[in-house]
Amino acid sequence: MHYPRYRAAPPRPRPANGTLSPLTFVLLVTVPAVVAVAALRAR
């Protein structure tokens, strides 16, 4: 039985125009909101 030679997947191209990934954008919006809500509920 013969298997083809293993080749690693080529690296995914990063966006060159400096846009944020959706996950990064969601985290940038969500984390400060959660911190603010936690700070207001603590009082």
Automatic annotation (TrEMBL):
<keyword id="KW-0472">Membrane</keyword>
<keyword id="KW-1133">Transmembrane helix</keyword>
<protein>
    <recommendedName>
        <fullName>Secreted proline-rich protein</fullName>
    </recommendedName>
</protein>
<feature type="transmembrane region" description="Helical">
    <location>
        <begin position="20"/>
        <end position="40"/>
    </location>
</feature>
<keyword id="KW-0812">Transmembrane</keyword>
